[in-house]
């Protein structure tokens, strides 16, 4: 009991040590000096209550675990249901349903909602791309945002210097990113696990710094602005068309409405995400997809069977980078502005979080996780100061309750027909 | 039957100060079954690792059909038709038995990205043929009914058989078995013997094996090479080896 008491007291103290400086104090500027003052008695009260709860929780740890142990025998989700949900077939139907819904609702949704949905779709695309590298091939890539940046700058520069349109630049951007993936992947893919993660992290940063310092070409920290939006078969969505062009609303004889542009962007993003979904679905059932899986399980056995590990890993890296390139060029078109600051490490971390949160290798999981990860911060704008805190809490809780991710997927097995 | 397919001479492998393999020589003729035996820690598996490119030998030459292969990477040697099994079975445990066999055919398949993406007729055909080959070998090793089970859930003897079938999918010329009978019961060992004989007769495969089960070794080998503490000790037909006093001494110790 004495030891418990000591531990409980220490835990309560720890609550104060962590929460008080972060939540209990407030910095404000008074004239030219910075003043620290208390957040008020309400916050202090909450911290005090938390520390008391923590004290009791640790003090009665044994009893608590006994109660929880009895309860956790009853699973939150019965195994049969969770098995059904992770079957590839079920997930395919759910994805179909989501696609239909995604096609219809923007015509009824508000402008802001469609805009956020477009952002979500960019992250879905990125998540699906990274899922190839991390989820399927098992290569931890922390520099994924580098390829996103390559895609974005490819379109930005091609349109800025050569005036090429989005639809021409999109495949070029994908190819550029894939080329970078190939070139960077070549030297690093002999590394494994943690080492690979560190090196890719470095590459991601190098690409960003390179873009930032190549001032003559990329505009340095100011980036490139006034990037044109995609067109619909040569029709722009602006109010007035440039010389020799026609606008969408004039051509169809509609009233000008800026929501058309937003919906069109959304549909383009949806198209790209669907393309990624289709390609990945096929990849899973192709020899190369099987080889990724095999390589993840046992590289030595693969080599003994004549599979070249470097080529197989490189193909995953290159394909993943290609999708990042598509996402990047779309991002550039949507924002109309690219700066190196859009491609910091935190972006890589968010994309990786989407993949891990969704459940490695699962497309539906990636979609759900992207929605959660982008929508939550948007909905919690009022609590913006605590966004990162909630983000962290969400991650910790996920790892406790569902370490396998929101909705992992069982791989579609090849079956012998009988 | 008489053509030499694999010639190894002066093979040595050094790990820092330890000379694990020292001057091992080995000649394998086509369609022969050659056994590599020796006490535990003699360096048999190290020889295998050198032959299959998992280690880069420190010295010596390995000729496959007269072509030197020492120093090539593992997958390159495998592509030349030299494949192996492992002492501790190395299957892809999360994949089904069938998929294990499909992976092994990787380089014989249509891996064109766009062909797979759009399921072109040639892609479908190549996948179908792969399935048929896998089905053929599943039947040969008696695993048809377990085709859709994940490999990790199979019994140990079945896993061993599946590993041999997986090697056969690569259409090898030499198959190297590292203790194929370890952990098998007498009945399974008999089946293994029949399987090895079948591989050699019907698929023209040359077999090189490491084995501790002397009854098996003596009954199927055409030629036996004994190594002890990394150095070659004896070399000959089963009869010669059986009567060799050095071999008996190495195995049983001096009286």
UniProtKB/TrEMBL annotation, chain A:
InterPro entries: ABC_transp_permease, LivHM_N, LivM-like. Residues 3-105 form the High-affinity branched-chain amino acid transport system permease LivHM N-terminal domain. It is found in: Cell inner membrane. The chain crosses the membrane at residues 40-60, 93-110, 116-134, 164-186, 263-284, 305-330, 350-376, 388-407. GO terms for molecular function: branched-chain amino acid transmembrane transporter activity. It comes from the Bacteria. The keyword Transport does not apply. It is a multi-pass membrane protein. GO terms for cellular component: plasma membrane. Keywords: Cell membrane, Membrane, Transmembrane, Transmembrane helix. Coiled coil: none annotated. This is High-affinity branched-chain amino acid ABC transporter permease LivM. It comes from Pseudomonas soli.
TrEMBL record, chain B:
GO terms for cellular component: plasma membrane. Residues 6-254 form the ABC transporter domain. CDD domains: ABC_Mj1267_LivG_branched. Keywords: Amino-acid transport, ATP-binding, Nucleotide-binding, Transport. Belongs to the ABC transporter superfamily. The gene is livG. It comes from the Bacteria. It comes from Pseudomonas soli. This is ABC transporter ATP-binding protein. GO terms for molecular function: ATP binding; ATP hydrolysis activity; L-isoleucine transmembrane transporter activity; L-phenylalanine transmembrane transporter activity; L-valine transmembrane transporter activity. GO terms for biological process: D-alanine transmembrane transport; L-alanine transport; L-isoleucine import across plasma membrane; L-valine import across plasma membrane.
